[in-house]
Design brief:
- The chain is of the alpha/beta class.
- The chain has a single domain, classed as Alpha-Beta Barrel (TIM Barrel).
- Helix 2 packs parallel to helix 3 and helix 6 runs parallel beside helix 7.
Length: 242
């Protein structure tokens, strides 16, 4: 892949759904079949990553997905150890909403030479955690507080700061298995104030959930837990979106 090809091609397909596959929740043996299912359902890309990564088979998992993928495979890393040359690109995440320097810049510095060696396309992403009604894994692992659900102006300020830093995307995240998705009003306010693509994930369980974030201005919605819980429900959502 030439530089910027994945990012530019994704922008041509928006709005759309990105599938999130977690190696801690999906086995390597299941990865190929699940990849075929989400691709056939019409996702625009596949994200691979985990907040913790208990599985010792990250590279094998990425390879199993890449072998069957008909769309870009993008690493969505929870730490500097989640890098694999078989992926097409990597979200170079900075946890803007937190004040823990390890996830603002520390883990990123640890990963840069490996990323360069792997020749991955790098997509800088401003990552913003939003209060979701429960204590999420990413909140625990990152040791940071999410932005309160009612404080739209704080989310806007962080998103705009990310754009001014040169980020290529902003990702509003409620967290895997979140009780509540990012408020649509927050999505709308952020969309009104930034000019770069907006990704929204966490707590999206139904067609109406996804439709609302698209109507509010999201360019991409991320579905993960629903794919693991019910492939039929996931496919039903995708059919209604098509």
């Amino acid at each position: 892949m030439v530089a910027k090809q994945i990012y530019e091609n994704l922008n041509k397909t928006k709005p759309g759904v990105l599938a999130l596959l977690d190696p801690d929740r999906v086995s390597v043996n299941e990865a190929g079949a699940l990849t075929e299912l989400v691709c056939d359902s019409g996702v625009k890309g596949i994200l691979i990553g985990s907040s913790l990564l208990v599985s010792p088979h990250f590279d094998k998992f990425v390879c199993a997905v890449k072998d069957k993928a008909k769309c870009p495979v993008i690493i969505f890393p929870g730490g500097s150890h989640q890098v694999c040359p078989r992926a097409d690109a990597i979200f170079f995440l900075s946890l803007l909403s937190g004040r823990n320097s390890e996830f603002l810049i520390g883990e990123q510095v640890k990963a840069v030479f490996l990323i360069k060696e792997c020749n991955l396309e790098v997509i800088p992403v401003g990552y913003i955690l939003v209060e979701s009604g429960n204590f999420t894994t990413v909140e625990y692992i990152s040791n940071t507080k999410p932005i309160p659900r009612s404080k739209y102006e704080i989310a806007v300020a962080h998103a705009l700061a990310g754009q001014y830093f040169g980020m290529k995307c902003i990702y509003l995240e409620a967290g895997s298995g979140a009780q509540k998705a990012v408020p649509v009003e927050m999505v709308s306010k952020v969309r009104e104030n930034i000019d770069i693509p907006l990704i929204v994930g966490g707590g999206l369980r139904t067609y109406d959930d996804v439709k609302k974030v698209f109507d509010a201005g999201a360019d991409f919605a991320v579905l993960g837990s629903i794919i693991e819980r019910s492939r039929d429900e996931f496919q039903a959502i995708m059919r209604r979106l098509s």
